[in-house]
Design brief:
Layout: E1 5-9, H1 11-17, H2 23-30, H3 34-41, H4 49-59, H5 63-66, E2 67-71
Antiparallel strand pairs: 1-2
């Protein structure tokens, strides 16, 4: 593989579609802090596999619908 890759996510959109769920509410359901959810959402932090699966499960989505591994824009 060439280039730089990053993990993108659709957490903000999914929260909005889930009756505008707050970062705090998601954090409580996943078992992490609101700051962790905020950092993951902004792409500043990549979640552990366990946390990624927990987030996907909260929204009832497969992991690939919540997180994408794609080439970073330059």
């Amino acid at each position: 593989m060439t280039g730089t890759f990053q993990i993108a996510n659709k957490i903000r959109t999914l929260r909005f579609m889930a009756d505008e769920m707050t970062q705090q509410a998601l954090a409580e359901r996943v078992g992490v802090t609101r700051q962790t959810i905020m950092a993951i959402e902004k792409g500043k932090y990549s979640p552990s596999l366990e946390v990624a699966f927990k987030i996907a499960r909260v929204f009832g989505k497969p992991l690939e619908e919540v997180f994408q591994y794609k080439e970073a824009s330059r």
